[in-house]
Amino acid sequence: MTTPALSWLDSLQASGIRPGLSRMRTFLRALGHPERAYPSIIVAGTNGKGSTSATLASILNTSGYRTGLYTSPHLVRLHERWTIGGAEIDNESLVRAIEKLRSAPGDAGITPTYFEALTLLAFIAFADAKCEIAVLEVGMGGRLDATNVVRPIAALITPVGFDHTEFLGNTIRKIAAEKAGVIHRGAIVLTSNDDAIVLDVIRKRAAKFGSRFHHVTEACATPLAGAFQERNAALAVRAAEELRPVLAKITSESIARGIAATRWRGRLEKFERGGNGIWIDGGHNAHAISAVLPFIAKRIPAPRLLVFGIMSDKDVADVTALLFPLFESIIATEPYPPRSVPADDLVARAQRMSIDATAEPEPSRAIAHALASGYRSIVIAGSLYLAGAAIDFFDAHGDEQRSEQK
After folding, report:
1. How far from the centroid of its chain's Cα atoms is residue 358's Cα?
2. Is the peptide bond before 159 cis (omega within 30 degrees of 0)?
3. Strands 304-308 and 329-332, sheet pairing
4. Are the CB atoms for 257 and 62 separated by under 8 Å?
5. For 185-214, how does the pLDDT look when each residue is reduced to its tens digit (9 = 90+)?
6. Phi, psi of 97 (to 5 degrees)
C-alpha cells in the first residue's frame, strides 16, 4: 500500500549517488543519534556481503539477541532491506520511521539521497524496535558509504573484486582501500580475501588502528548453494566466535542453529516447475559469476538454457565471456530499462560465440518462453533486478515448488 511517507521516500530515487558522510552525520545529530542505541557490525566487500550478513544475523538471532539486519538492494519488496528479529519490517514501523526522518530536515536543512534515507531508516527502526545489535551491509565501497557512520564492534570484508570502478578506483588496491575504510579503532577485523594485495591493504588498516586481524580461510557447511557460500558462512561463524567475549549468549549450539536457519534469496535459489529445474542468481559482475561457474558446470545438468539480462554499467564483456559458453541457448532480456544492455546486443554477443540466442526484452515473457522451451535446466542470471523479477514471477504462481536453496 502506498502512503504519503512511502511516496516521499520513493521521490528520493532521483537524487543519484553522492558519496560522503557529512549529510548522514547532520541527520543523525538532528535525530538524536539512533545509531548509538545498539552496537553494530559492518560487512563490506564486492560479493558475498549479503549472505554473510544474513548468516551472522541469523546466528545472533538464534543466540537470543534481538537483531536488526540492513541489506541492499531488495529483490521484490522494499521492506526486505530491514529485518528485525528475523522478520521483515512491518509497514507501520517503516512508515513511523519515515515520518521521523521527514521531521529532521527542518533542523538539518538538507535532503538525503535515496540510499542515505534507507540507511537512516535502518538506524531509526532498529532503535525504535529496541534491537540489541545491528548487522549492516555496506552499499558501495565502504569509506564513504552511508553505513560507515557507526563505530562497529566488528568489521567483516568479503572477497573484493572489480565493481563500481567509476567511484572506487580502477585497481584492486584502490578498491580494497575503499572497502577497508569500514575499519575503525575498537573493531575486530575479519576477512575471507585471498588476494595478496587486498590482504596487505586490510592488514595495514587494521594495524593502523590497533585492531585484531583474522584471515578466515576455512569453509563451513551452509544451506545456501554454491561452494563460495561455504567461505561466506565461515566468515560469519568466525566473527560470531570472536565476539563471544562481548556477546556471551553466543554458543556453539546457537551458531549451528543460526547457520541452518539462514535464508538468502536470489543466490542460486532453486525452483522446480513441471519437471524443470530453475536456478536464479543475482550475480552481476565477473567476480560473482566466476564464483557460481563451478556450481553450474558440476551441479546443473546439460543441456542448459540461460535467461540473461545485465546493466550497461557492469563489465558486460567479461561476464558474458565467462557465463555464455556454459549454455546451449540464451534468451536475452532487459530487467531495468533504460539502464539494461539492449537484448539485441546480448543476442549478437551470444551469436558471435556460436550460441543460439533470442531476444525477449520483457522479463516475465522471457521466463515464460524459457519454461516452454523444452529445456530441463534453466538458469536466470546477470542482474539482481532480473533475480527479483524472476522471484516475483515464481512466487506469483502457485503451481511450482521452491526448494530450500540446496
Report:
1. 29
2. no
3. parallel
4. yes
5. 999 999 999 999 999 999 999 999 999 999
6. -65, -40
